[in-house]
Amino acid sequence: DGGITQSPKYLFRKEGQNVTLSCEQNLNHDAMYWYRQDPGQGLRLIYYSQIVNDFQKGDIAEGYSVSREKKESFPLTVTSAQKNPTAFYLCASSNWDSYNSPLHFGNGTRLTVT
Amino acid sequence: AQSVTQLGSHVSVSEGALVLLRCNYSSSVPPYLFWYVQYPNQGLQLLLKYTSAATLVKGINGFEAEFKKSETSFHLTKPSAHMSDAAEYFCAVSVRTGNQFYFGTGTSLTVIP
To answer: Pairing relation of β-strands A19-25 and A4-7?
Structure first.
């Protein structure tokens, strides 16, 4: 079945450590996205990528970095510069060129930093 | 600028009662509108989408939504709530320019037996 795989589902880190969240899709979608979800705040866009080797900052990119070396993969690194990294992180993808293509989401990674 | 407002962060209904979740949007260009559902500790699943082909859109699990341009609304309804409908619901709008999606803050639906 086609879909988006995020791993791990739960991640625990000490403050000051960088951590990388994995996102892989086999939907052949061009565009991929990272969102952060906090209670009562909906989804906030961190980064998105339209094509391989290109990505743009979203609304809350500070303290995060991404890469897009392959069409299928869009890993997110939460750096020690992110002041409040504990959150639920969602990866999504869509057909960039497809008329009104919706977002398809992975099942998320819950990151806890202590 | 695009934005989405979901009125009511928490909605409770009795099992078998009508479900009505409200969504209003603002958009400077014709929008594409979506409703998503999220169960605890899971990703978002598409319920339905508005594509301008018809103003009344039917989705999965018996949900439907009506696009009302004059009211800039896209409210989600279901005639009879089921216990399994308890979840978080998000309204989203996208515009092709930049292919950005904008989400509301979500409505948590509780179904009372």
So the answer is: antiparallel
Amino acid identity, position A76: L
Q: How far from chain centre, in Å, is Cα B61?
A: 13
- pLDDT tens-digit series, residues B18-46: 999 999 998 777 788 999 999 988 999 99
For B8-38, b where at least 16 C-beta lie within 10 A, e where not — what string?
eeebebeeeeebebbbbbebeeebbbbbbbb
Please tell me which of the candidates A40, A41, A110 has its beta carbon nearest to residue B41: A110
Interface of B with A in 22-61 (CB under 8 A): 32, 34, 36, 41-46, 49, 51
Closest CA to B101 of B26, B6, B23, B34: B34
Q: Which residues of A touch B (CB under 8 A)?
A: 4, 6, 9, 31, 33, 40-43, 45, 48, 50, 88, 90, 92, 94, 96, 99-100, 102-108, 110
